Structures are given as C-alpha cells and as structure tokens.
Amino acid sequence: MARTLEGISSSPAADLARAEELVSRALAANPRFAYAHQVEGRVLQAHDRYDEAAPEFETTLALNHNAVWALSYLAQCKLLIGPIEEAIPLEQQAIRLSPREPRIGWWYWVIGNVHLLQSHTDEAIGWYERARSSIPAAPVLHSRLASAYGLKGEIERAAAELAEARRLSPVYRNASLTRLRAGYWGVPEIRALYETTLFLGWRKAGMPEE
Question: 142 and which of 77, 125, 165, 184 could share a cystine (Cβ 3.0–4.6 Å)?
C-alpha cells in the first residue's frame, strides 16, 4: 500500500489489488486489528473513496487512541469531504502525541492546507514553510507554497517555489491547471474552495492553463 501511495511502485495496480486482498484477509481473521483498519482506509483513499475511508480511520482510533497516522489520514479526509475545520485539531493531537515524528512535516502541511482553503494566507505560508523545512525534497510542499505566495502577491517567491516543484518532480514539470483539475479535489463545495484559493494562487505563480 505504501509503495502505491508514495508513487514508488513499479506495478501500482497490482500492488493495490494485493493490498486489498491482504487487508481483507487480516480483517476477516481479526476485525479488531486497528492497523488493518488503517490500511483499509488507505486502500479506500487510493480509490478516492474518502467518505468510506474516514470511518476506517475512526475505527482505528477507537481501537488505538495513539494511532497518530490515523489522526493525520482522517484529517486528510476532512480536507476533501469536510468539515475542513476539524482537520486542524486532529493534526494538533498527532503533534502532541508524537512531537519527534520524522515525517511531521506532512502534519504541518495539512494544517497549512486548511488555512489556505480558509483564505488565511499568512498562516498557510507559516505552516507550509515549517513543512518545507522538515521535508525539503517534497515537491508538493513547494507547489503549495507557490500558490500561497501567489495569493499574497509575492510573485517572485511564488515563481521560485513553483520552479523548485518542477525541478523535483515531473508531475509539476508537465503540470497545467487543466491537468491538475482532473484530479480528485473533494465534494463540490470543497472543490470550489480549492478553485478560489489553491488554483488561483497557482495561476498567479505562473502555472499555465493548458
């Protein structure tokens, strides 16, 4: 599952199918296996079925209150199915439980995303910069900073972050607003928020339409 979601699988469809098979067997053997529910949630996320993934992460947390990544994955669901304001307390709880988490930058990133969608641009920039400092090689962090700087009117910094995202990943090197819109951006009301914040900022940063 991890290979598939992190984009490092040489056969993502086969790995995803294998993950589904294995997690189904695990849950059949032990329906109270917290980690299996977490993986089942990740499988559903991979299929863009976030409304079904969220209850799996909630079940994980009911079985294991210290499952910090289930908190974060549930927060990611909130960014797409709502309510988005519930994502920040989930990430804050994860940070309190595991303040030395090596990949804590992803938790900062989710908090930044909430602020961006709420048009709290300065707060978004602050959290994105913390995330970038934690995981400097993650292209998505540079791309989100590009949008936030674009919304703030700091076009030179926005363009520099977009250029870094393009340097780090062919996804952004070949990206356009049209291509990115083809991805899953949540239920209609949240998709509209992405359009007026994230996509507007990318346009100002210099991302082409087509």
Answer: 165
Residues of the chain with CATH 1.25.40.10: 1-81, 102-210
SS3 content of the chain, % helix, strand, coil (to 5): 75, 0, 25
What is the C-alpha to C-alpha distance for residues 134 and 21, in angstroms, rounded to an integer? Answer: 34
Separation between Cα atoms, residue 210 and residue 52, nearest integer Å: 33
SS (H, E, C) 105-164: HHHHHHHHHHHHHCCCHHHHHHHHHHHHHHCCCCHHHHHHHHHHHHHHCCHHHHHHHHHH
Given a contact cutoff of 8 angstroms between Cβ atoms, the answer to whether 135 and 141 are in contact is: yes
> How does DSSP classify residue 66?
T
Distance CA 124, CA 143 (A): 13
Cβ neighbors of 103 (< 8 A, separation 6 or more) are: 134, 135
Neighbours of 83 (CB within 10 A): 8
Residue 5 has pLDDT above 90, yes or no: no
Per-residue pLDDT tens over the stretch 20-54: 999 999 999 999 999 999 999 999 999 999 999 99
CATH fold group of domain 1-81: 1.25.40
- Is-above-0.90 flag for pTM? yes
